[in-house]
Design brief:
Number of strands: 25
Largest sheet: 6 strands, antiparallel, barrel
Distance between the termini: 45 Å
CATH class of the largest domain: Mainly Beta
Radius of gyration: 24 Å
Shape: elongated
Number of domains: 2
Number of helices: 9
Strand order of the largest sheet: 5-6-7-12-9-8
Length: 445
């Protein structure tokens, strides 16, 4: 069915613009336009235009919907909530094929006043702009946001997330505009703000994803930063390349219940110094480091270390990739794509979660059991083009660390970690991600 529509008004969402300018700084190399649009200079003024919305009026009314669609306020949304994205990629070219294409993911992160900025790992393509982000709950479909940018990059690295603006903020700005302008459909637009369509979803109790996110920390070596996971109140697991060659690092814990400066405001992060007590050699295929904190972090649930793996199970990765500490850790969902074993023992885990720069060292969790499966080591890069693939990534299984961690916690003995430096040729071959060029064609990885 095709309908004609008339443009009623264009209006900005200043709250969205303010959050964007704080979150996505130009000097960090963010780009929101597609490869084709980069040829046109006007499209490079991304942050100046992303906060503008258009209101259209259909010339002919649609048939009554067979379901109830509510507008949900985004302030109470919880990271890790299951979301659906609906858009029409390339719809103007082939609407019979692409119209109302649905994608599923989770709420990866939020930012700004009352969560005006929404980030989801539900995969969208160019042409999805203006489509909806939905939460389905108790038999009702709730519209929570409008897709603003289905794809974006940081320093030429595809982030693998979709950017959306809270629909509640858009409606509030429509209401403000109605007070100042005489618009033909003013009464119809005013109905949006009556409250009968707006659901204020209060925050629920911390679900499994909240406990998972509480164990993720930001690790700053002074030269670079990445992610780590608290395995107990004083011990952090991360990657060797995150700590570099530092002996001391700063570990930042998000939402620690500690007040700043003796006042009533809570710190966004609590910073603790830590000592790098072990780091694998550069020659080791296992990219692992152990950090002992100078003080205990109370109230952090210790993750259960997995002892077995099931390819195809639902998983998630928590990390400070791309956005760093500006809005806390991000969560991305997917499946455990492959478990690579050598002599019957798992040595590498592959997932379809979105992983980008800064996620290294972050935890990989099983969604159903909540067990810690592994430590994120890398995503995939095509060395011939420089392109990265965030949804193809690799983690070190915690199964190979269990015995060494237990011995260190009980006896303070680090010698068992030294076995990570003695991995055989078969393990090294797996983690090289490419065979010798004289034997087979060289991989692009």
């Amino acid at each position: 069915m095709q309908c004609q529509a008339k443009l009623i008004m264009m209006l900005p969402c200043p709250e969205f613009q303010l959050a964007l300018s704080s979150l996505f700084r130009k000097e960090d190399g963010w780009v929101f336009s597609s490869e084709e649009e980069k040829e046109f200079g006007e499209f490079q003024k991304d942050l100046e235009h992303l906060h503008w919305c258009a209101v259209l009026k259909l010339q002919s009314p649609l048939p009554k919907a067979r379901y109830t669609l509510d507008v949900m306020d985004s302030a109470g949304l919880v990271k890790g909530s299951t979301l659906f994205a609906c858009g029409s990629p390339f719809g103007s070219l082939y609407p019979d094929i692409f119209l109302n294409t649905i994608s599923k993911g989770v709420l990866s992160n939020t930012a700004g006043e009352r969560n005006v900025v929404l980030l989801t790992d539900a995969r969208c393509l160019p042409g999805s702009e203006g489509g909806g982000i939905f939460l389905y709950e108790n038999g009702t479909l709730h519209l929570i946001g409008i897709i603003v940018a289905p794809l974006f990059w940081k320093v030429n690295e595809w982030v693998g997330l979709t950017l959306a603006c809270s629909i509640g903020h858009i409606i509030n700005n429509i209401m403000k505009a109605l007070r100042k302008a005489d618009i033909p459909v003013k009464s119809e637009l005013a109905a949006l703000g009556t409250g009968s369509h707006i659901v204020d979803r209060s925050k629920r109790g911390a679900g499994p994803s909240q406990h998972m996110m509480a164990s993720a920390v930001l690790v700053d070596s002074g030269q670079s930063w990445g992610t780590g996971v608290l395995v107990n109140a004083k011990l952090v697991l991360t990657c060797r390349h995150v700590v570099k060659h530092s002996s001391k690092v700063s570990v930042k814990i998000h939402n620690a219940k500690m007040k700043s400066g003796g006042g009533n405001a809570f710190k966004k992060f609590h910073t603790v110094r830590g000592e790098v007590v072990f780091s694998t050699r550069e020659s080791s295929p296992y990219d692992i480091a152990i950090i002992r904190l100078d003080e205990e972090i109370p109230g952090i649930p210790e993750p259960v270390l997995a002892s077995s793996y099931c390819a195809g199970e639902d998983v998630c990765i928590v990390g400070f990739g791309a956005l760093g500490e500006r809005c806390g850790p991000s969560i991305t969902s997917g499946v455990l794509s492959s478990v690579i074993s050598v002599d019957g023992d798992p040595v590498m885990l592959q997932t379809s979660c979105a992983v980008h720069g800064g996620s290294s060292g972050g935890p990989l969790f099983a969604l159903q059991s909540g067990e810690l499966l592994g430590i994120v080591a890398s995503n995939t890069r095509d060395n011939s083009t420089g392109a990265t693939y965030p949804h193809l990534n690799f983690s070190v299984p915690v199964a190979i660390l269990r015995a060494a961690l237990k011995r260190y916690v009980e006896f303070g003995d680090l010698r068992s970690f030294g076995e990570l430096n003695k991995a055989g040729l078969a393990v090294r071959d797996v983690w090289r991600l490419q065979r010798s060029p004289e034997n087979v064609f060289q991989s692009k990885l």
